[in-house]
Each structure stands twice: as structure tokens, then as C-alpha cells.
Amino acid sequence: MKKLMQWAIAAALICSSTVFTGCSKSDDNQEPVVKPEQPDDNGANSSSDDIGYIECSWNGTEVVKTPKVTTARDMSTLSYSSGSVRNTIKISGFYFISGSFTTDNYLYVNGWAAIILCDGADLKVSGIYVNNGGTLIIYAQEKGTGHLYAETKYSDDFCPAIGTYVGDGGKVEIHGGNVDAKGGIRSAGIGGGGSDDEHANLSDIIIYGGRVYGHSNGGAGIGAGAYDTSVKTNITIYDGLIEGSGGTDVYKGKFYGVGIGGGHRASFGSVNIYGGTVTASASDESAGIGAGEEAPNGVGVVNIYGGTVTAQGGARSAGIGGGDGKKLNSINIYGGTVYAYAGADGAGIGGGEDGDSGDINIYGGVVRAYGDRNSDGSSNKGYGAGIGSGQNGNVNTIIIKGGDVQARGGMDAAGIGTGEEYGSDINSGTIEIHGGKVWAEGKGYGAGIGCGEDATFGVLGISGGRVDAHAGSDCGPWSGGIGAYHKGHGADDNCHIGWAGWQRIYIGAGMRLWTYSPNVGGVENVTNNLPWWNYVHQRPQVAFDVCDHPGYTEATCPFCYRETLQLQ
Q1: Residues 6+ apart with CB under 8 A from 375
Q2: Is 492 exposed, middle or buried (0-12, 13-18, 19+ CB in 10 A)?
Q3: End-to-end CA distance of the chain
Q4: What is the pLDDT of residues 56-105, one digit of tens each?
Q5: What pLDDT, on the 0 to 100 scale, is given for residue 424?
Q6: CA distance linking residue 135 with residue 296, whole number of Å
Q7: Which value, in Å, is the radius of gyration of the alpha carbons in the chain?
Q8: Which pLDDT does position 192 carry in this prediction?
Q9: DSSP classification of residue 37
Q10: What are phi and psi of 482, to 5 degrees?
Q11: pLDDT tens for each residue of 163-188
Q12: How far, rounded to the nearest angstrom, does the alpha carbon of residue 539 sit from its chain's CA centroid?
């Protein structure tokens, strides 16, 4: 009763401040949530306490934090088998941990269970299993300093640290606190297991906040385990400090891990990021965010609405997109700040080596995509595009409608378009730019926008925005920074942007087309008055809307005047 009074007073103080949005709307927020009764088969002491916790929700714009109080059991009083390594303790209902407690046992969620990490608490377990449609919720208190550490310690365990090792469905929600999860072989840190003869996947992983770290040994750090092509796990991140790491600690060289998404030979449903600071890194042949090695091709969707997202692909894989030889269904960026770094021969955003781009749509945000470097600034010595396909992969569609987009290709690859082609007929597909500020740089024989070396140019349409494209320094003088010359040449510094030979470039009505030659020292301003999607042979360097900003002319406007932008 004393603890209940303390939390009632604390909740009242919190509601009078601005810490918890919407807390003062109703006193109903202070009522306990009705959940399943505590089971009698886990050997727990029957005593319980009134414990406060923070429940989170998403209101469409931000995370709303609501203080609540419930009756919960002390997790440290459960009947664990001290020193035993594979005992499983069933849990359901509310539990709390207020001190430090370590056990080698596994916790098994029997239907529905919630663990409240009290401020300053430290709980260490060998795993928490959420099988056959169960639900696990992890709550924290006001300061969010409680800590849960789960690690599957045995190399022959095909089990996640937190998640499902058998059965479909199930859900894990994290509302706060510090959560560290390290999965077993071929298994996710948080998500699915890695058995090759069992379906094992969660339907939903939802993170509202806290500091969350998931590490895999062949599955995803956060997401699917390995070897299950039926997985449709949806991962939603609303806020917090989130890190997903795909590692190969146990069987290095055999199984590879995605940071966030699908696992080795496994699919996933979607990754949805609304906010927070999200960092994802992968081992070889797997994407930072997206698909793993030998995953089903064209499966999975990544949606980024906000937050700060950094993704590092493993060798032959995209930063965001496909693993080795693979693509996603689609990648959609609506906002936020996104940094995507390819592993060698993958694209920054798009396909892995030998992988197509999938459909890439950018509607807003700040996007920086690198086919030529790692997140630490070192060269990855790769041949994939900044945005588009990996080496020897086709572009499907790339559509940019807004945002501040900068893309740099790897060696002989386009900034936006295809990577280098080395043995088959590769095409740059359809690239459309309808708005935003776009800066693209190819390298070697790569175009700024269009083709990598020896690829065939497809279709480019520009109807709005500001576009600045620079081809690699090895390109010939008759080729284009936008487009290609016959097969695979961009432009050199003597002709930043050239026409596309027999290929097609479409320019919207009223767009201003520039061609620039430092050797001549002149700028030719050509205006295209033909309707959108009419075929033109021009040499566009930068395409703008006609300036309509009050107080400025087209030559002086800071919003649309031609200038050379630099990658950060």
C-alpha cells in the first residue's frame, strides 16, 4: 500500500508537468490495466506489490507516455533451478524486477506477460520465449534505467534471445528501459529462431522507446531468424536509441546476419521507422536494413518516416535494401535523416551485388547514400550505385518527389542508377525526378544519373526540383552526367552533363536546361517548352523550376540558382 501511495503521488506530479503528453486528460490513466491472472504453475511466491510503470502509445505524430500502476509479482521470487542450464520457467501476467537478479533459466511466456524494469534494476536471463502467438511487453519506470540482458549462451541453440523458437505469430513490445538481446546460432537477437525444420517468427516487434540492442548470429539483430521463407515479421520503431547488429560470432563464415529485417535465407514483412536514432550494421552478404543472404527475392518493404537512420551493409550488400544478389519489394523514404552505406559492390540504397534496385521512392527527408564508402569514411572499393542497383544489377524504378538527396556511386557506377555491369545486359530502368534537391555523382565511368560502365540507359524524366549531376572523371567527352553514351559512359569534367545518344531523356515544360564547359567558359541556357514526357535531345546539367520566389531573380535566387553542391 505504501508503494501504491508513492506512485500515486509521483503520477500526480508527472501529470502536472509536460513529461507525459496527454497524461492530464483523465484520471483513468492511473487505473491498473486488467490482464490475465497470475499462474500458479510457476512456483512463484504468492506475494505481490503495487508497482508503477510507463505505458507508451503512438498518436500519429509522437510517442505518448502514460504513468500507470498495477499489481505485479517480484520476478526474483520465481522458483528457478539454480545452476541448471535448460529449465524453463513459465510466466504470465505482470512481473517486476527491482534489484539485481541473474539466472541461467529460460523464461517462457504463457499467453501474455509483462516485465516492469524498475529504475536501477538489473535482470539477466538465458532467453525469453514468446511462442505460438504469445505476447511479451517490457515496461520501464520514469527514469528508464532498468536493464534486461538476455543471451542464448549455447552454440547449438537455434533460439533468439527474446522471441519465438517455434510457431507462428506472437508479439514483443518494448516501452522503455535498457534491453540487450543476443541470439543463438542463426537466430535473431529479438525476433525469430533459426531452426531449418520449424517455423519460428514473431508477427510484430514494436519499440516505443528506450535503449534497445539486438545482436544475431545469422538471423537479424532485430527481426527474423534464418531459414524461414514464410516469415512476415513487421518491425515498427517509434522512438528510442536502437541498434541492430548482424554478427557471426559462433560459426563465422557460414551464416550471415542482417542488422534489422530478415535473416539468412529468410524473408520478412516490413521495417517501419517513425523516429528515434536507429543504427543497423550487417555481416557479409546481408543488408544493414533489409534482406539477408539467399533471402527470397523481391520480398520485404522498408518505410522511413522520421528519425535518424544509419545503415551499413555487409560485403556485396546494400546499406538499405537487398543482400547478395537480392532486392526488396520497395524502399520508401518520407522524412527523417538517412545515411546508407553499401558493403563492397552493393548499393547504398537498393540492391546487393547482382541485385536489382527494387522500387525506390523518396518523398522527403535528408538522404545521403554512398556506394563507395563505409560508415567510418573508409573506401569499400565497391562498384555499386549510390541509389539504385548493386554491381551487375538492373534498376527497376527510382522516383524522387522531394527531400534533400545526395548520392555517390562506387567505382564505375552511377550516383543514381546502375552499378558497373560485368557480364550481362544491364539497364538503368526508369528514373523520375519530380521535386526536391538532388545531387548525384558517378565515379570512374559512371554517370551522375543513369548508367554505370557498360550498362544501357533506360528512361529519365525530370519535371521539377533542382538536379545537379556529375559523371566520373574517366568518362568520354561525348557522354552525359545524366544518361549514357551508347553503353556506359557518363561525362568527364569537360562536359559535366551530356545528351544520352540514342536513349531518352524527358524534361518537363518550362524547365531550364544547362550545359557547361569549363574549357569554353560559357553557359548555354536552353528552355524546353514541350510538354512533360516529350522526347528532347539536350545536354541538361541542372534542371530547375522557373523562379517564383519573391524578391529574387533566377540568377540570384538562393533556392533555385545553379550551384555545385558538396557531399557531407
Answers
A1: 281, 310, 312, 339, 341
A2: buried
A3: 57
A4: 999 999 999 999 999 999 999 888 876 655 678 899 999 999 999 998 88
A5: 64
A6: 27
A7: 26
A8: 80
A9: P
A10: -110, 120
A11: 887 767 789 999 999 999 998 877 88
A12: 36
491: number of Cβ within 10 Å = 31
Per-residue model confidence as pLDDT tens digits over 518-538: 333 333 333 444 433 333 333
- Three-state DSSP class for residue 362: strand
Give yes or no for a contact between 50 and 3, defined as CB atoms under 8 angstroms apart.
yes
3-state secondary structure of 105: coil
Phi-psi region of 434 (alpha: psi -120 to 50; beta: other; left: phi over 0): alpha
For residue 230 the three cell numbers come to 514464410
DSSP state of 379: B
112 forms bridges with which residues in the sheet? 135
Q: What is the pLDDT of residues 336-371, one digit of tens each?
A: 999 999 999 999 999 998 889 999 999 999 999 999
Residue with the three cell numbers 537478479: 101
Enumerate residues 6+ apart whose C-beta is below 8 A from 431: 395, 397, 398, 399, 416, 417, 449, 450, 458, 459, 460, 461
Q: How far is CA 457 from CA 274, 425, 450, in A?
A: 35, 11, 6
- CA nearest 303: which of 265, 266, 329? 329
Q: Comparing C-alpha atoms, which of 565, 567, 447, 427 is closest to residue 498?
A: 447
Cα–Cα distance, 447 to 54 (Å, whole number): 52
Find the angle CA(272)-CA(206)-CA(58) to the nearest 5 degrees.
80
Q: Give the three cell numbers for residue 46.
A: 504468492
| Residues 6 or more apart in contact with residue 300 via CB below 8 angstroms | 261, 262, 267, 268, 269, 270, 271, 290, 291, 328, 329
Mean pLDDT calculated for residue range 536-545: 37
For 395-453, write each residue's pLDDT tens digit: 999 999 999 999 999 999 999 999 988 766 777 888 888 888 888 888 888 888 888 88
**What gap in Å lies between CA 225 and CA 185, rounded to an integer?**
9
> What nine digits make up the cell of 294?
539467399
Residue for grid cell 525526378? 433
User: Is 538:545 a contact under the CB 8 Å cutoff?
Assistant: no
Burial class (CB in 10 A: 0-12, 13-18, 19+), 241: middle
**Angle 511-448-259 from CA coordinates, rounded to 5°:** 115
Name residue, grid cell 536501477: 120
CA 386 to CA 346: how far, in whole Å? Answer: 9
Q: Taking the model in full, what pTM does it have?
A: 0.81
Give dist(CA 366, CA 191) in Å, integer.
30
pLDDT tens digit string along 486-512? Answer: 333 333 332 233 333 324 455 454 444
Q: What are phi and psi of 340, to 5 degrees?
A: -125, 125
Mean pLDDT of the chain: 75
Collapsing DSSP to helix, strand or coil, 9 comes out as helix
Confidence of residue 301 (pLDDT cuts 50, 70, 90): very high
Enclosing H/E stretch for 14:
helix 2-15
